[in-house]
Amino acid sequence: MLFRQIIHEDLGCASYLVADREAGVAAVIDPQWDVEPYRRLARLHGVRIGHVLETQGKLGEALQSYEASLLIAERLAKLDPSNAKWRTDLTWITNQIAYVKKRLRSGK
Hints:
four-stranded mixed sheet, about 50% helix, globular
């Protein structure tokens, strides 16, 4: 069994990688949007990520936060349309809003 905590100092929270080394499978719990730390850990320990779990479930609050972030991301992208990071952030936030709305509609 492998258990690693990944601290997100900018968010004030943590996520986790839990793995069964014998089976070669890992689960990521409460991931942040940047998945590279989990991928690196999985490669380092010779496991593949097979499951992603979310424990918070505050979808209404998440939607409000994403919608506020979207307004900022849209303004930034308009200021400098050549800035690839801002365009990527805008796309990611838009995808997160769609995901949360889908979950709210499905009741899951």
